[in-house]
Structures are given as structure tokens and as C-alpha cells.
Amino acid sequence: MNEIGIFKGIDEQNVKYMLKCFQAKTISYKKDTTIISNLANTNIIGIIISGNANLIRNDYNGNRIVLEKLEKGSIFGEVFSSYSDELSVIATEDCSVITFDYEHIIKRCKKSCPHHNEVINNMLQILAKKVSVMNNRIDVLTKKTIREKLLEYFSIQEKENISKTFYLKLNYTELADYLGVDRSALMRELKNLKNEGFIETKLNKIKLLY
Amino acid sequence: MNEIGIFKGIDEQNVKYMLKCFQAKTISYKKDTTIISNLANTNIIGIIISGNANLIRNDYNGNRIVLEKLEKGSIFGEVFSSYSDELSVIATEDCSVITFDYEHIIKRCKKSCPHHNEVINNMLQILAKKVSVMNNRIDVLTKKTIREKLLEYFSIQEKENISKTFYLKLNYTELADYLGVDRSALMRELKNLKNEGFIETKLNKIKLLY
DNA sequence: AAATAGGTGTTGCATTTGCAACAATTTTAA
DNA sequence: TTAAAATTGTTGCAAATGCAACACCTATTT
Parallel, antiparallel, or unpaired for β A199-202 and A205-208? Predict the structure, then answer.
């Protein structure tokens, strides 16, 4: 529990205490069930304790778009997001989830839990991290050609992995979505990059040759 | 002062008290001077009190990109951003700026200023707002064609202005950058939308006809 | 084991886009 | 007020991209 973002650095004992204070609920969900619907209109914060889930946006056309993949330790609902579209969280595996009201974070409780400050600090860190991740994506998306987008994306992966060889965390269909381009066009450009000797690929393994 | 994001809702008296406690400095800068350089490697938070400035990224090629336009009340440095490129803040007008160390926000002072909680809450709100703004941009950028990007952008403006008629806050050169497209191609698509009767434009005034 | 679904890889073709270059207009500075 | 700079508006053309369609392969489900 205390490796998890929001409670990072707080000892087990105190985490339990705070969760009680926050009136947090732990609930288990079966695969493919809805953990929470209409997330944008709630003040709920959720933490995935085990299993995986997806944060989904139901487009105005009824299209379902995966906004975020949530895994153990992921937090959702930390941003009372201004989406007018419906957001929901769906279990992609059996999973276990803690939820509590966002109010408990900002309004400090009467008991004044000794580690409340740390929770808030962690919360700021998490949001800042989120901004940073989104900045990366915007950097990639603003590149004009698929080639430039790919190279920017690779450069970020290279930095994160501190290596010119790394494994993609997204499959190619997802990568195309992430880059905002057509999948077949992505594959084509990937092939070009290979033919011109910029990269080597083997399934989801990428090696940069420059 | 107490309309400004981070001190919103706190009375003048207490704001002054906190600024002292935060060891905040107020400095004036002439137009085109550097307010802070290498922002990414500091823990400084700045607030623009008067005038305008730009948050600039110095690209690896030496290109200067405007990341954010800062105006009265704007905050910079709130995210210890993970940019490896150099960030700096440049005055685009004479301006006056308050700066203090980020530490003061998270580590509460010994005097335990009575409104420290509100500052933190405001800080969370600001970051959340930032995430929401970035989400909007990502939504626009992931659209595949210039037309779709424009329509998504217009739709966001329409919501924000609660009106089908509004004035663009960006000029067309900036809008092209924002959308990540070529400016001339943007103008062309704008003309198409006009010819097909979707919109009317008059300089930076847009009227949606659908 | 067979059937189904999901992801990968490829291609032709029409469309969209970026690029370059320039004129016209507006804004800003001298 | 004039000159200079910035922004808007246009166009031809080559290049990049999306789209559709299909084959192939690999998981997952029945």
C-alpha cells in the first residue's frame, strides 16, 4: 500500500488509519464489469489495488475510446475532469479497488491525521507527473509527419529506458491511436524507417540505429 | 491578489502574511528581458502580477517555441516539468512578478499559516485545470484531418463561450501551431469550410452555422 | 479441435497536406 | 507619417496520408 502513489512514504499503520478516516471502501470487481460509470460527475477517487482496468470515454457517436490503462497502483478520478462526454472505468481483469471521496484529501479531517500533508504532497506529485506525461504526448502529436512523430516517440522511450533498445508498451494499433495516425500508414512508415536503416524491429522490440 | 489562482479566497491580510512566510520576492522586469532561465532545473514558482510574458522552450535546434502565454495571474513553474530542453520565461511587456520556492507550498511552515490548506487546494485546482486544458488540446490534435481538428477546436470554443459566435484568442499563425498543421493548409481548409457554408469568418471572429 | 476474434503486415488509389513562394493587408516601430 | 515587420490570404505541386480491402498470423473462446 505504501508504494502506491497517493500513500507513498506512509507506513502501513497510518495508511489504514487514514483509509478509515477517509471512509474508503474496498470492492472487488469481475472482469468486464463496470467499476464506476459517469466518473466525470462524481468526486470519487479510486485506486486499483490489484488487476487491470481501462478508463473509457464514451464518445458522442457512441464510440468507446480507451483514455488510460489502469494497473495496480493507478489512480483514477484525481481530476474532476471537464469532460462532457461520459467517462467510465471498466475492469479488464478481475480487480480490487479502493474508493473514497475527493473531499477527504483537501479538507483535512478533525482527527488531523499526521500524514495528511504527505498525501497532499503525493497528490501534487501525481498531477505534476500527469502533466508531464501529457506534455510528452502533445510534443509527439504536434509533429507534422508520421516519421517525425515516431522519432519523437522513440526519443522519449530512449530517454525513459536509458537505452537505444526497448520494448513498446503499446501494440501497433494502440500506437497508431496514440500518435493520432492511421495504422496502415504507421506500418508503412515503420517499414520505411527500417529500409533506410534508421531502426530495427522485431515484434514490439525496437532498436534505434542512430 | 486574492483573485489570483493560488491565493484565491484568502483575504489580503493573510496573503501578505503568507508571502512573507514564503520569503517571496517581488521583482519588476522590462519588456524583452528574461524573468527566469533554465526554469526546469529550479524549484521556483512564479506569479505574474502585472504585464505579459511567454513561457519559452529552447528546442534542441535552437528554435524558440512559445509553450504558454502568461498574463496577469498566471503561474509558472508549478510543474517541476521533466523537460530536458531549456525552459525560460521572457517578459513580452514590462511586468512585475512574485517568486518563491515550491518547498513552501508542500512543507507547511512552523508558523502554520491558517490558510495554508487553501493554498494547497488552490494548487490542486490549478493543476487539475491544466490537465483539463491539455486534454482539450490532445482531443484536437488526435483528429486526423485539419477539418476535424478545426471543428473540434471550434466546438470547444463554442462550449467555453456558450455561443456559436466567438473571437479567436490565437491568431492564425498561432492556431496552426496549436493544431500542429501548416498555416497555409489551415487557411485553405478554413476557406473550404466557408465555401461549404459551415462557418462565417471576419478576421478573428468565427460564426458557426451548424 | 475448431471457430472466432484481434492484431500484424501489405498495397493501390484518391485525397489531404506540407512546402515554397508570393501578394495583400494590418500592425508596430521609428 | 513612413518604413519595417508581422500577419493574412492564395496557389501549384510534390509528397505524405487515410481509407479500404485483404491475407496472414496468433491468441482466446467454445
Answer: antiparallel
